[in-house]
Design a protein that fits this description.
Blueprint (H helix, E strand, L loop, with lengths): L6 H8 L12 H9 L3 E3 L7 E3 L1 H7 L42 H21 L10 H5 L1 H11 L13 E4 L6 E4 L3 H13 L2 E7 L6 E7 L3
Antiparallel strand pairs: 1-2, 3-4, 4-6, 5-6
């Protein structure tokens, strides 16, 4: 950036919606953030303003970035590692046990609603029944959010549950769940969330798993 943001601009960045990165402020304040490369104005009505990747890094304490780092990229809907206060969907396999508190459930529901709004604003036809560009760029986190928001239990340090992992295939994630009935339930959830999910068997172990990819139409 040409110069660091002012204290007032930093407060706007810190106050952005944790799920979508949407900003609130006066037109002059938002325009200033756009000039700094920390925000972009969405091309579709109502022309809301969202954090750029540089804006997200600034809020997350990574020192920001340059405007060339993607000032016109879609906002993040489930980003961060959790320790810095930014919501992170559980992909399964985290060292701590899954948090099933009421506060966590509210966070998950809020993040899912934010993602649906992101679909509405960034899909060309405003559709909310299929994944958007952010989800295609963050497959593991997007699939995990869909599962957690539907009430599926992620695997923790000890309890069994789902695990979402990247695969060598483009636009596809693998979902592992030791309970066959729970695995089928995960497939149904992903399909309702706009994904295509098929059940496969690992040749060496015989373990069943899902291969899921975002639906395009």
């Amino acid at each position: 950036m040409a110069r660091p943001p002012t204290a007032a601009q930093r407060r706007l960045v810190d106050g952005a919606d944790p799920a979508t990165g949407r900003l609130r402020g006066t037109p002059a304040q938002l325009a200033a953030l756009v000039r700094l490369g920390l925000a972009f104005r969405h091309p579709r009505p109502p022309h809301a303003h969202f954090l750029t990747p540089a804006g997200h890094r600034l809020r997350e304490g990574d020192g920001g970035g340059s405007p060339a780092d993607g000032a016109t990229q879609p906002p993040s809907a489930a980003s961060g590692a959790g320790s810095d206060g930014v919501f992170a969907a559980r992909v399964g396999g985290e060292q701590d046990a899954p948090d099933r508190s009421a506060a966590r459930l509210r966070e998950v529901r809020g993040a899912w609603q934010g993602l649906l709004e992101l679909r509405r604003m960034t899909n060309p036809d405003g559709a909310v029944d299929r994944p958007c560009g952010w989800e295609r760029a963050h497959l593991v986190r997007a699939a995990a959010l869909a599962l957690e928001a539907a009430g599926h239990r992620p695997a923790g340090a000890d309890p069994p549950g789902y695990r979402v992992r990247a695969t060598p295939q483009p636009e596809a994630v693998a979902v592992h769940e030791p309970d066959p009935a729970a695995l089928r339930a995960c497939a149904a959830t992903l399909e309702r969330a706009g994904w295509q999910a098929g059940e496969y068997t690992q040749p060496r172990t015989g373990t069943r798993y899902l291969l899921a990819s975002p639906r395009r139409v």
